[in-house]
Design brief:
The protein is mostly helical. The protein is built from five helices and no strands. It has one domain. Helices cover 84% and strands 0% of the residues. The protein starts with a helix and ends with a helix.
C-alpha cells in the first residue's frame, strides 16, 4: 500500500514533468529557430516553418510562452524543494522507489531550468549583443 509520502513524491515528479514540457516550448518557439539562423541554416528553418506553421504563432507569442513557462517552473521548483526532505515509506522497496522518484524529479527540474535559461538567452539577451 502506498502512503501519502509516496504520493507527494509523485506530485513532485508530475510538477517537474510539467516544467520540462513548458520549458521545452521555449526552445521550440525561439531558441531552435535562432540557433538555425545563427549557424547559417536559414533554409532548414524555412523548411521547418513550411512543414509546421505553428512555429510562427509560437514565435509571435513568445512573451506569453515565457511567462507561462516561468510560472510553471516556479511552481515545479517550489514543489521539488518542499518534497526534498519529506519522509519516504519504511518499506524498503517503496523507500527505494520514493528516493529514485525524488532524484528523477530533481534532475528533470534542473534540465527544465537549463532549457528555460537557454531559450531566454536566445530570445531576450542574444539579440541585444
Amino acid at each position: 500500500m502506498r502512503g501519502p509520502d509516496f504520493q507527494e513524491s509523485q506530485s513532485g515528479f508530475f510538477s517537474a514533468l510539467v516544467s520540462l514540457f513548458a520549458s521545452s516550448g521555449t526552445l521550440v518557439c525561439c531558441a531552435i529557430p535562432a540557433l538555425l539562423v545563427s549557424i547559417g541554416a536559414g533554409s532548414v528553418l524555412a523548411s521547418l516553418v513550411s512543414a509546421y506553421p505553428q512555429i510562427v504563432w509560437l514565435s509571435e507569442h513568445k512573451e506569453t510562452i515565457f511567462a507561462v513557462s516561468a510560472i510553471s517552473i516556479a511552481i515545479g521548483g517550489f514543489q521539488t524543494l518542499s518534497n526534498r526532505h519529506a519522509p519516504c515509506p519504511t518499506d524498503p522497496e517503496l523507500r527505494r522507489a520514493c528516493l529514485t522518484l525524488r532524484k528523477t524529479s530533481s534532475r528533470m527540474y534542473m534540465v527544465s531550468l537549463a532549457l528555460f535559461v537557454i531559450g531566454g538567452w536566445f530570445v531576450f539577451i542574444q539579440p541585444l549583443i
